[in-house]
């Protein structure tokens, strides 16, 4: 009987501990997202459900969570939002999809987004972002889609991005980038279209292969 009581107590303790850990973790993610909301102008109230008093943000509109109540998607494309990205977004360490395209988001891309090592898709295109592409994005080794086109980004393309071997889609076009376009690593897969409309970018020279020598004539048999 004592053993059963002990087992029940242990199960109860683990359940309570898991519940409290979930609350703390969920609130940390909720706080990060709420910090983002606080400095956004949202004329159509698409973020109206973002209530920081809830246990976690999993019931908020445009937010998707996994079965452990951690945030895996932020879907706010074409939401007419105006504002800036905040460093706290780097706390969403289980985030897989950050979809913030086609808004009026300005300012710089926080280097803290390099902490989102589960990220599969980073879509920030069609905004008003400026400044450099952070080198820390090279830490996103699961990234498959990186679209930063149609902003006002400046500086050179970080060579750290060429180490992302999972990268399938890259679009850095229509910015103000300069310097040489890397052609090593994963960047060897991409065509000039990925970098179009950046007048100060320099593409590496393509050295044409020398034509193969003509085969020697086969001697005639006598």
Summarize the structure.
This protein has 222 residues and is α/β, with parallel strands linked by helices.
Task: Describe the 3D structure.
The protein has one helix at residues 2-38, and strands spanning 63-65, 71-75, 82-84, 97-99, 104-107, 121-123, 128-131, 145-147, 152-155, 169-171, 176-180, 200-202. By secondary structure, the chain is α/β, with parallel strands linked by helices. The radius of gyration is 25 Å and the shape is globular. Residues 7-26 have low confidence and may be disordered. The longest helix has 37 residues, at 2-38. The strands form 2 sheets. The chain has a 6-stranded mixed β-sheet with strand order 1-2-4-6-8-10, with no helix packed on it. Strands 3-5-7-9-11-12 form a 6-stranded parallel β-sheet, with no helix packed on it.
DSSP helical segment count:
1
Share of β-strand residues: 15-25%
Shape: globular
Mean pLDDT: 87
Report helical residue fraction. Answer: 10-25%
- SSE string, helix = H, strand = E? HEEEEEEEEEEEE
User: End-to-end distance, in Å?
Assistant: 106 Å
Let me know the largest β-sheet: 6 strands, mixed
Strand line-up in the sheet with most strands: 1-2-4-6-8-10
Radius of gyration: 25 Å
Low-confidence stretches: 7-26
Structural class: alpha/beta
Number-wise, the strands total 12
Keywords summarizing the entry:
222 residues; alpha/beta; 6-stranded mixed sheet; 6-stranded parallel sheet; 12 strands; 19% strand
In terms of topology, how is this protein built?
Blueprint: H1 2-38, E1 63-65, E2 71-75, E3 82-84, E4 97-99, E5 104-107, E6 121-123, E7 128-131, E8 145-147, E9 152-155, E10 169-171, E11 176-180, E12 200-202
């Amino acid at each position: 009987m004592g053993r059963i009581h002990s087992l029940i107590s242990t199960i109860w303790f683990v359940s309570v501990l898991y519940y409290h850990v979930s609350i703390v973790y969920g609130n940390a993610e909720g706080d990060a997202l709420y910090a983002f909301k606080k400095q956004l102008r949202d004329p159509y109230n698409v973020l109206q459900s973002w209530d920081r008093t809830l246990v976690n943000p999993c019931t908020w509109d445009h937010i998707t969570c996994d079965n452990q109540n951690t945030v895996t998607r932020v879907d706010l494309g074409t939401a007419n939002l105006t504002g800036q990205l905040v460093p706290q977004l780097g706390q969403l360490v289980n985030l897989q999809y950050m979809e913030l395209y086609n808004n009026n988001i300005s300012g710089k891309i926080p280097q803290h987004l390099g902490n989102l090592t589960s990220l599969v898709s980073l879509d920030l295109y069609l905004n008003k972002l400026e400044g450099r592409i952070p080198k820390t994005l090279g830490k996103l080794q699961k990234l498959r889609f990186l679209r930063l086109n149609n902003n006002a980004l400046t500086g050179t393309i970080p060579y750290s991005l060429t180490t992302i071997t999972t990268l399938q889609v890259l679009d850095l076009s229509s910015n103000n980038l300069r310097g040489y376009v890397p052609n090593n690593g994963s960047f060897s897969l991409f065509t000039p279209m990925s970098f179009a409309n950046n007048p100060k970018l320099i593409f590496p020279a393509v050295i044409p292969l020398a034509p193969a020598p003509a085969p020697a004539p086969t001697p005639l048999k006598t």
